[in-house]
Specification:
Blueprint lengths: L2 H8 L4 H16 L4 H10 L4 H15 L4 H6 L7 H13 L2 H58 L5 H15 L1 H19 L2 H13 L3 H23 L3 H11 L3 H18 L2 H5 L6 H13 L2 H56 L2
Helix pairs in contact: 2-3, 2-7, 3-4, 6-7, 6-11, 7-8, 7-11, 7-16, 8-16, 10-11, 11-12, 11-16, 12-13, 15-16
């Protein structure tokens, strides 16, 4: 681990920190303040220790005669190469303030999309935990008390009651094994997802999941479109853009697809034709890229695609939340209802046997 990566684990820099940094820097530069003084002013107001340390090193590098983009590129854990390369183009063209704002807007849109996906997953995760807790309480505390009562009365229990009580008893007797097994499985699964093969399989699974797969793909493609549009608008050619986009991709499945597109592009096939060969790239996106290539407005076309996919992803997220909430409520109700039915059936059975 590098020192930046270790520090990032302790003092996490959020997208909001970088967005604010870029926008403040753009404002100060437009006001006529030189870049060193601007960074010193921004650094003096920071509370994040890691970002404060990084800016302190950046200021020292700038005083030594280095450019801002080269200085920030020395901290890839904080400023990914894609952002630093965009700033480098801005420095060369004299549009640094504009590029800073464009990068800030891009990070903000990406962070917003990520929050929406996490929000869609949060409710089912909480509901699943609540379901496990409810089942655990019923199995450990409620059902044993009724089981002892029924045994003392020597009543003949209905089938559903015996099944529920036996199931609860099995869980209670093997609770340690179940917990340890679940913990071990969780640790092994987590370790596997840290490997290249594991990351690829998880990414592939997420893209192929019913309902959620479409949402994942839309967000990944929107991010890809924003990346290319940002760099293309900055003035970089596609031959330089593709390696940066591939390097900045966090999805191994998309990275593999983009690598294939890059190889065909270098053979002179352009961008849209290689993309059309892979079903991962949706038809509308391929068509818009083709239009952008033919008209010389690739950045505008990709921005339109990203906007369309982000809107669809937002609508899909709302629909999923609308489906998940009643579904999880029904599951919890079924679990509690099954236990209640088994207890009531036993009571009616004993009442019938007493007469």
């Amino acid at each position: 681990f590098s020192s930046d990566r270790m520090a990032a684990q302790l003092y996490k820099i959020t997208p909001a920190d970088i967005i604010l940094l870029y926008r403040q820097l753009a404002l100060l530069l437009e006001s006529g303040v030189n870049v060193v003084t601007a960074l010193e002013l921004i650094q003096s107001q920071l509370t994040n220790r890691l970002l404060k340390k990084v800016l302190n090193e950046a200021i020292a590098d700038l005083r030594a005669g280095n450019q801002l983009s080269a200085t920030l590129a020395r901290h890839p854990e904080v400023f990914p190469p894609l952002y630093s390369r965009s700033l480098s183009v801005g420095e060369q063209t004299g549009n640094l303030e504009t590029i800073l704002r464009q990068v800030a807007d891009y990070i903000e849109k990406e962070a917003t999309a990520g929050k929406k996906v996490k929000g869609a997953l949060m409710y089912p995760m909480i509901a699943a935990v609540v379901t496990v807790i409810v089942v655990g309480i019923l199995a450990v505390f409620v059902l044993p008390a009724f089981s002892n009562l029924y045994d003392s009365l020597g009543a003949e229990l209905p089938t559903i009651t015996r099944v529920v009580i036996n199931g609860a008893e099995m869980i209670r007797e093997n609770i340690v094994v179940i917990l340890l097994g679940s913990l071990a499985a969780g640790v092994l699964a987590f370790a596997y997802t840290r490997t290249p093969s594991g990351r690829y399989q998880v990414a592939k699974l997420l893209i192929n999941l019913p309902l959620f797969g479409r949402l994942t793909l839309l967000n990944e493609l929107a991010r890809f479109c924003r990346n290319i549009a940002l760099l293309f608008r900055a003035g970089l050619p596609l031959t330089e853009i593709m390696p940066l986009v591939i390097q900045g991709s966090n999805n191994p499945v998309l990275t593999e697809a983009l690598t294939g597109v890059q190889q065909d592009m270098l053979k002179g096939e352009g961008l849209s034709r290689p993309m059309a060969k892979n079903s991962l790239f949706l038809p509308m996106m391929v068509q818009m890229v083709k239009v952008g290539e033919e008209t010389g407005s690739l950045d505008t076309s990709l921005d339109a695609v990203a906007q369309s996919y982000e809107t669809e992803a937002e609508d899909t997220t709302r629909s999923l939340i609308g489906l998940i909430q009643p579904a999880m409520t029904i599951i919890i109700a079924l679990v509690v209802g099954l236990v209640a039915l088994s207890l009531v059936s036993a009571m009616y059975s004993m009442y019938g046997q007493s007469f």
